[in-house]
Design a protein that fits this description.
Layout lengths: L1 E2 L4 H10 L11 E3 L4 H8 L4 E3 L7 H10 L4
Parallel strand pairs: 1-2, 2-3
Length: 71
């Protein structure tokens, strides 16, 4: 899940993912700037990371993070 703030939509997805019959599993949460939602993801036990959108290597780091997620 990609977030940019508090992660309210993400929290809804994580709550649903906690149900045994949920058809999806959240593998990681990525923010492009400091965001409260990263702490929320970690509280749910989901790996969370910040990838600074202003960094010159942002596109490469984002693609690397996404490539590391298996289906």
């Amino acid at each position: 899940i990609l977030i940019s703030g508090t992660g309210s939509n993400m929290a809804s997805l994580l709550n649903e993912a906690a149900h045994p019959d949920c058809p999806y599993h959240v593998r990681q949460v990525i923010a492009d700037r400091p965001a409260q939602g990263l702490a929320t993801a970690e509280a749910f036990g989901v790996p969370a990371r910040l990838i600074d959108r202003k960094a010159p290597d942002f596109p490469a780091r984002l693609m690397e993070a996404l490539a590391g997620v298996d289906g």
